[in-house]
Design a protein that fits this description.
Helix content is 21%, strand content 19%. A seven-stranded antiparallel β-sheet has the order 1-8-6-10-4-3-2. Strands 5-9-7 form a three-stranded antiparallel β-sheet, with no helix packed on it. The structure holds (2S,4R)-5-hydroxyleucine, succinic acid and manganese (II) ion. The site of succinic acid (SIN) has 9 residues, from strand 9 and strand 10.
């Protein structure tokens, strides 16, 4: 059991939990190299920053890069997810938000589950997100900001804005909270941003209110976000299902690997 009872309680109270330096530097290198390779694969899964050719987000890299596929079943990660969501799980969505140095854009204030309920008819918020820091995350390079405990209020609102940025993936701008809603929630919950070295992992609830500021620093802030969903809670789309790169189709239960994801690659976990 990777998490203590105290950590499990902390996750349920706050809506997130930071595991600092869970992965070692050599493992982070494997993951960033896989990201570089994956950015060379063109297609609709590659989302660019507004008005530019720089990468904003890449979806479904775990379908193309073995390091990511294995990481999702790593014995340090999957059992921790299962402690927080004690049922069979599969990976519903995988993305890497690049937030590049010198201008990576913001991610507006939102709740993930609203996006998935609207776009995919996901019946219940029975998900756990993992955020894997591919770079050191500091106060300077646009860390994710959480409103701790805000997941316990349920969905703050239920609509998508008109004029969505993309029909396929929802940008948080399309479902963002109003300034009034945010101000009220911040009064109640405050704000916090987990920071730490590359290789740290933050687990967070699909209902927690979160967002992040632009990155005007000289340091990238690449963040891998994978969403595990309960196998018994598959989406029920009202219309045409979204593409497989946004909503993974394989709902078979994930089994934990015996070894660290890096072991199969001949690298000693450090
Ligand atoms: N981009 C995701 C999707 O499913 C939704 C966002 O952080 C999750 C809001 O399209
Ligand atoms: C997100 O919530 O998907 C984006 C958060 C971030 O990358 O800062
Ligand atoms: Mn989000």
């Amino acid at each position: 059991m990777p998490l203590t009872q105290q950590q499990v309680t902390e996750y349920h109270d706050n809506g997130f939990l930071l595991m600092e330096s869970l992965l070692g530097p050599a493992e982070v290198r494997l993951l960033t190299e896989a990201f570089e390779r994956d950015c060379a694969v063109t297609g609709p899964h590659l989302v660019t920053e507004d008005g530019g050719s720089r990468v904003r987000a890449v979806y479904a890299s775990h379908h193309r890069q073995r390091e990511y596929r294995d990481l999702l079943r790593d014995p340090r990660i999957l059992p921790a997810v299962r402690q927080l969501l004690p049922e069979d799980v599969y990976v519903y969505q995988f993305k890497i938000n690049a937030k590049p140095a010198f201008g990576g854009d913001r991610w507006a204030w939102h709740q993930d589950y609203l996006a998935w309920r609207i776009a995919d008819g996901l019946p219940a918020p029975r998900q756990v997100n993992i955020g894997v820091f591919l770079d050191d995350v500091t106060e300077f390079n646009g860390p994710v900001i959480f409103l701790p405990g805000s997941h316990r209020d349920g969905l703050v609102h239920r609509e998508r804005r008109a004029g969505a940025k993309s029909a396929q993936h929802l940008d948080p701008d399309d479902i963002s909270l109003t300034p009034e809603q945010l101000a009220t929630l911040v009064d109640r919950h405050g704000m916090t941003s987990p920071k730490g070295p590359a290789g740290s992992v933050v687990l967070f609830s699909p209902e927690i209110v979160h967002g992040s500021a632009p990155n005007m620093s000289p340091w990238d802030r690449r963040l891998l976000i994978a969403t595990y969903n309960a196998c018994a809670n598959p989406p029920r789309p009202q219309h045409e299902p979204r593409p497989e790169y946004v909503v993974c189709r394989d709902t078979a239960p994930l089994r934990t690997r015996a070894r660290h994801f890096s072991d199969a690659l001949g690298t000693v976990a450090s």
